[in-house]
Amino acid sequence: MKIRMLAAAFLLATAPVAVLAANVSCPTLTAAQQAGTCPTEEDLLFTFNGYCSDNARIYGKGAEVCTDYQLYRKMKNIVLWEVPKTGFEGYVSCDIPAGKLKTLKPMTISASKQGKMSRLACGYEEGVTFTYRTREECRIDSAEACKTDPAACKANCE
């Protein structure tokens, strides 16, 4: 009896696991939760002065944001948001009120691959993007339909 149970357990452990295709839809943001805190204006001014006073920065990448505090503020005044139980997350401007963010509808969907990881990006109004990362290959059925129908903003990941 023990031998049969061990043999059955061995067969189950070594049997190939069937991978089912999963439909991944762009989430509604009603359940989105802020995962960090927004920087204060004092923090932004302090980091602007530190970031932009670095002489190497002036001659390298990022010099354009050091010409104007408002450009820097737009780039750095963000916080991480996540949609629980979906795997989607995104950095959102702290200037967008939480109430407004939760009403935004998806307008675009795109998939890209970097190495072994796939990135599914859902674009919302106000320039907000939430992303989902997976090792599975994601294919979008109809990116065009997503522009007019939020329910069509989905991909098949397998």
What do these coordinates show?
- The protein is α+β, with helices and mostly antiparallel strands and 158 residues long.
- The protein contains six helices and nine strands; from the N terminus they run H-E-E-H-H-H-E-E-H-E-E-E-E-H-E.
- A hairpin with a 4-residue loop joins strand 6 and strand 7.
- The longest helix has 13 residues, at 2-14.
- It is globular and about 50 Å long.
- The protein starts with a helix and ends with a strand.
Helix content: 25-40%
Strand order of the largest sheet: 1-9-8
Give me the count of strands: 9
Main sheet record: 3 strands, antiparallel
What is the radius of gyration?
22 Å
Cα separation of the termini: 38 Å
Structural class computed from helices and strand pairing:
alpha+beta
Q: Averaging pLDDT over every residue, what do you get?
A: 83
How many helices? The count is 6
The shape, in one word, is globular
What proportion strand?
A: 25-35%
Helix and strand run: HEEHHHEEHEEEEHE
Enumerate the spans where pLDDT stays under 50 for 5 or more consecutive residues: 1-20
